[in-house]
Amino acid sequence: MSMIFYLLTFAALGLSIWAQFKVKSNFEKYSKVEASSGRTGAEVARQILDQNGLYDIPVEPVRGTLTDHYDPTARVVRLSEPVYYGRSIAAVSVASHECGHALQHQESYGALVLRHKMFPIVNFSSGVAPFLFIGGMLLGSLNLIGLGIILFSAAVFFQLVTLPVEFNASSRAKRIIVSEGMIRNTEERGVSKVLDAAALTYVAAALVSLFELLRFVAIFLSGRND
């Protein structure tokens, strides 16, 4: 049974590596394709926010590549410099996706609210769980392993909750930029490739964590049966 879990985990890790490759390659590819609207990522983000009454949310450049994110605590959309200043399909796609999170926050989208509430707990549990697993394995303590499973389960659930948040943000982004003429219908394929590759990284990360959790559950159950 444990061999199956190992194989599934390695398969998920392989998917994760492939997903990261696809994100980078698609972003680089469509960063070289200028969007027909000629707008920068910052301009697109500003328009989406303003049209939805979010005038008080600033759009700021941040160093790095693929460092784009929406900060719900500071209520700010931060775009990497290639996205903030870029006029490409990739820039428009990523900028609109991050604004999708701001719109989720505005309407208190259920999965996003749950993720925000879970974050402090998960931040603690994900840091402690590995040490409990290691300690339990070294000391032969099922109690430590069981506690590690409980804490790690919270982290896995957090990643699963993240999936609808990310997919919903991408769905909103595609719908908005098409309806508002920020991209043409012929450019939708490029947008989908950029956003779908990014979403795949979250799927892969969730699978890796889920299979790892199941492996430790199997170890725990095996120890109880001995």
UniProtKB/TrEMBL annotation:
Keywords: Membrane, Transmembrane, Transmembrane helix. It comes from the Bacteria. InterPro entries: Zn_peptidase_2 (IPR007395). The chain crosses the membrane at residues 118-139, 144-165, 199-221. Coiled coil: none annotated. Pfam families: Zn_peptidase_2 (PF04298). This is Zinc metallopeptidase.
